[in-house]
Specification:
Blueprint: H1 2-15, E1 27-32, E2 35-40, E3 72-77, E4 83-87, E5 92-96, E6 102-107, E7 119-124, E8 130-134, E9 139-143
Antiparallel strand pairs: 1-2, 3-4, 4-5, 5-6, 7-8, 8-9
Amino acid sequence: MRITRFLSLALLAVSCGESGTRSFSTMGVSDSAGVRIVTSAPVDVLYAEMAAEPALVIGRLSGPQEYLFGTITAVARDERGNVVVGDSQANEIRVFDPTGVHLRTLGGVGEGPGEFEALSDAWPVAGGNIVATDLALERITVFDSTR
């Protein structure tokens, strides 16, 4: 139950899209008797919105392996709205569609290409690729979206 709640909250945070316009700080530079003064106004950027109900729930206490999680180290949405979840206990990255249906599992325990000894982070990048880091192997792996 604790894992499901945590994942629900994490997914809620990443599922929040942009609303409204972003305002960026305006920097000002002035000179006061040869002393450079740099000022910036605070920004009004909305990073996440909280809701009473989760937008999406992924994870179960029992059932298919791809929906069971050990230690979640990363949760992010890619440019298509898919949810990328890194599980360092299983040393796997699981990708789910925007409705929570499992699409594919990447990685696994090992030292070979695409395997992990200590998955520490995973995040989607442009083109649908996924970048992952392994602290034990001191390695960065890029998973191609076409495979």
